[in-house]
Amino acid sequence: MRLVGSAIIIAVAILGFAAIAQQTGTGGNQPPAEAPPAPIPPTNGSPSQTPSQPQVDESALRYFASQGDTRRVNAEIARLRALYPNWTPPSDLSQLSGSPGAPPPDPLIERLWNLYREDRIAEVRAAIAERQTTDAAWKPPEELVTALETVEARRRLTNASDTGQWRTVLSVATEAPGLLTCMNVDVLWRVAEAFARTDQPNRTRDVYTYILTNCANPAERLATLQKALLVLPEPQVTALLQFERRTGETPDDFGSIRDELARRRVERASLDSKMTASADDLAVVERLVQTSGEAGPVLILGWYNYHHNNPTRALELFKTALDRNAGPNAAEGYAMTLRALNRLAEAEAFAYEWRERAPENMKIYLDVATALLSQDPPPRLDTQVIGRIVPVVMAQRFSDAAQALGWYSYNTEQIRTARDWFRTALSWKADDEPSAYGLALSTQRLNDRGGFNAVVAQWRSRSQRIADLADGVNPATRQAVVAQPAVPQPAMTAPPAMAAPVETAPPAQPRYAPREVTVERVETEQAFVRTEDNVRRRQSQARSALGRNCAITRNPSGLSADAALTRGWCLMEANRPLEAVDAFDRAIANGSNRTREEAAYGKSLAYLRKNLTSEAAVAAAEAPQTRERQVELGASILTQRALAAYRDGRYVETLHALSERARLVPEQNDLLLIRAWSYLKLGRYDDAAKIFRAVQQTGYSEEAAAGLNAILEVTGQMRY
Asked: Where is the region Disordered (predicted)?
C-alpha cells in the first residue's frame, strides 16, 4: 500500500492540535494547525545520520522476510518509510534473509519476534527483562522495541476509545504518531470520533479527509463516510464526497452515502409541513421504497405525503409499511390518514386493533373515536362500536372522548346517559366548559333542578351560554335552528362510575333537542373581548360556524389570519390538535397583535392536548399572554410533565414539577395523591402518610386509604 510521507506529517499535525486542545479546551471552529516536522527516532545510539543516507534498523523487516510473512513485510516497509522518508527498501527482499556475510541470527531475537508475531507482548517484555538481568549490556533491537511500543499504544488507545475516554485517545495518538497510517485505519477512525466527542468537528473532518486522500482500500473509504454520517454535520459529509475516486483499479461507489443524505433531508421535511423536499431527493426515496424492501423509506415517504396534503398516496405507503412489518408507527400513520380522508369508521376499527401496541397508538385511537362521535349529524353506530369505545375511554380517563360520548347521547335522545357522561368528563377535567354546558342542558331536560342549579352556580361567571340558560334566554332568538328528525341509534352505556338517578318527566319542549352546536351564541359585530370565557366560547362557535367544513383536511396557507384562527379553534373542537397547530401558525404569521395572542394561546393548548409540553411552552412565548393565561398554561405544562415523569418512574422529577406548579396554583387532590405516591416510591414514608391523611379528609378516602395501606405493608406494620 502506497503511503505519502507528507500525509503522515499531516496526521501528526492533526494530533498535535489535539494535544493543544486538551490544554486549552478549544472547540471545533479553529483553523487548521501548522504541521510540525516529523520526529526522527534514535537509532541505537548510532552517530547522527545524514538525510540522504539514514541508518535504519531493518531487523524486523529481515525477520518477517525470513518467515515469508508478506503482509508484515509490507506493513514494516510502510512504517519505516513513514519514519525515514529518504530510506529505500531493498529491491530484492531475499537480500534481507540470507545475504552473504550477514551475521548469524540470534536465537533469542528470533524467539522474541515469534512471540511478537503471536501477539504475546507480555512474554516478549518478560524475556527481554530476563536477558538484561544476566547481560546488562544487551539491548533488544530498536525496531522490536518500537514495534512493542506501537502495539501497546494501540491497545491503550483502543481501550480508551471503548470506554469513552476521548481525551486519553487523543493523548495516546499524539504520543504515538506512528499509529496514524493507512495500515491502522481503525485507529484513525477512533481518533476522528474522539475529536467529534470533544466538540472539534473540524478536526474530525481533517482525519476523514486524510483517509480519503491517502488510503486506497475501497471498503475502508466507504466505511469512513458511513462513520462521518454519524458524527459530522450534513454539509461536511457532503463536502467529503468530492474525494470519491471514479477511476482506477478500485473505484469508489459512494452512492449509498448520497442516498442516505437524501433520505435524511426527506425525513426532516416529513416531520414539518413547512419544509419541502426537492424532486431529486423524493425520487431517491421513491427508488429506495421500490428496491430496498425495508420499511424505513416507506414510512418516511408516507409521513411526507401525509404532512404535505396528499393523504391518498400516504395511505398507500402506510399500507405498504404495514405489509413490511413496520409496526406501531405505520399503524399510527394509517389511522391518522384514514381520519384525514374522513373515513372515521374505518379508522376507529383499525386503530382499536393497534391501541395497546404503543402510547401513540392509544392516543390516535382516542382521537379517532372522539372524531367519530363528534360528527354532525351523529352517525349510525353499531352497538359493537360503542362497546369498543366506552371501556377504553374509561380506562384511559380521556375527558374529550367522554364529552363526545355525552353529546352523542344527547343528540340521540339518551339524556340521562348524556348527563352521566358530562359529569364523568368534568370529573376528569374540571375546567371543561363544553362538558359543563352539556351537563346544564341535560339536567334541564331531565328537570333536575338541583343538578341544574349546581352547574349554574359554578359556571355562571365563566360561561355566557350557561348563564343564558339560567336566565331563560331563547337560543332561537340568537340563531335560527332547523330541527331534524333524530336518527335511531343504539342505546348508549352510561359511565360505570355514575349511578343514574330516577328520571323525571322532562319539561315541555320540542321532541328533538337541538345539538350542542345549534344553541351557540352568535358573535355580533362588536369587538371581541379577550377573556378566558370568550376564548372558550370562540372555540365552540368555530365548530358551529364551520360545521362539516372543518372535517375536511385542507391547507390553511391560503386563509386569512382570522379565518385561520377560526379554523384552528374548529379543529381543536374536533379534537384534531396537530392540524390545528398549522392553522394557528398561519394566524400567528399574518394576524394582528390580538389575533396572534389568541392563536399562540390556541397553539399551546393544541400541543398540550398531545402531551407535547416543550412545544407548548415555546408556542406560549410566540405572543404576549395575559397573566391569567400565563398561569393557566404554566400549570398545564407542569402538570403534564409531572404525570409523564411519574409514569416513567422518575419520581424526583415528578416532585420537582409538582412543586413548580404549586407556586402558580393550588394543588388539587389527584395531584396531591401523585405527590404522596412519589414520596412513597422514594422511601419518604412520613411525608407520604401526611399527604394521604390530608387527602383522606377531603373525600378521597378510598384512594388515600390505599396509599396508607401501602405504607403499612412496605414498612411491615400491616396486620393480616
From this structure: 25-56
